[in-house]
């Protein structure tokens, strides 16, 4: 009788243990962007049942330098970077890339109260290239913008579009995006002199709108990020009855001024 009970218990435990091993293996995934390994402090990337790697959408903002907007009513994620834009609806296989509808073989999901998106479809939609190293289980992302093309001589320089200003050209400001009153994205630069001039210009822009005192407080924290690997942890600041949030990771850094009445969890 004891042998029968033991056999039943073992039969019940084995599938559970096997499931745990499968989940653990599926979550053992690394991601690199331009050769730099991405650190996921809490929510981790994982491979879903369709064999696709899903990552927390916050990664898109911080490491790919994109802007992410969430439409809670329609359960949609809208991602923009420069002139590229991607729209994904939770639970659907359709994805809208620069206005063109495409079909994925997986879906964006909400897992543990975090929004996860298929990294290959999103990164490629934003103009990056994506590879997979099966040996190390690593997603390899290369951003096109970080690759400097060989200049081509031209006989008509007057028709050549002007290059971005190295300081102000990499500061993006948006206003009135759902619950956000004012959003500023600052692109990290390997040249520390240019980077700090960029911070100075961004602080001046912020101070002109919200005042020097709060601008100094915000940018004293922003200036801690001097290298790409340095993670500027998500931090809240209070300005009268409004919240200001700051976070920076990889090549992206975002400052958001939330509208009055918005309560952050």
From TrEMBL:
Chain segments annotated as coiled-coil in the UniProt record: none
Boundaries of every Copper amine oxidase-like N-terminal domain copy: 32-141
UniProt cross-references to SUPFAM superfamilies, sorted A to Z: Copper amine oxidase, domain N
InterPro entries according to UniProt: Cu_amine_oxidase-like_N, Mao_N_sf
Protein name: Copper amine oxidase-like N-terminal domain-containing protein
The organism of origin for this protein: Acetivibrio saccincola
């Amino acid at each position: 009788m004891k042998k029968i009970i033991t056999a039943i218990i073992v039969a019940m435990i084995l599938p559970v243990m096997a499931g745990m091993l499968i989940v653990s293996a599926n979550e053992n995934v690394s991601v690199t962007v331009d050769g730099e390994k991405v650190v996921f402090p809490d929510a981790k990337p994982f491979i879903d049942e369709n064999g696709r790697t899903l990552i927390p959408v916050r990664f898109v903002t911080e490491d790919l330098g994109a802007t992410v907007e969430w439409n809670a009513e329609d359960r949609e994620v809208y991602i923009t970077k420069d002139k590229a834009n991607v729209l994904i609806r939770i639970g659907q296989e359709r994805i809208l890339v620069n206005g063109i509808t495409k079909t994925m073989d997986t879906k964006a999901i909400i897992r543990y109260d975090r929004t996860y998106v298929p990294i290959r479809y999103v990164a490629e939609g934003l103009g990056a290239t994506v590879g997979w190293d099966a040996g190390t289980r690593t997603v390899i992302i290369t951003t096109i913008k970080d690759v400097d093309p060989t200049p081509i001589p031209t006989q008509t320089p007057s028709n050549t579009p002007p290059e971005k200003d190295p300081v102000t050209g990499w500061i993006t400001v948006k206003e009135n995006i759902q619950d956000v009153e004012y959003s500023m994205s600052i692109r990290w630069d390997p040249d520390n002199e240019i980077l700090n001039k960029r911070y100075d210009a961004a602080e001046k822009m912020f101070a002109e709108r919200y005042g020097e005192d709060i601008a100094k407080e915000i940018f004293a924290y922003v200036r801690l990020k001097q290298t790409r690997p340095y993670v500027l942890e998500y931090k809240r600041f209070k300005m009268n009855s409004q919240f200001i949030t700051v976070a920076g990771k990889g090549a992206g850094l975002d400052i958001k001024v939330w509208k009055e009445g918005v309560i952050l969890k």
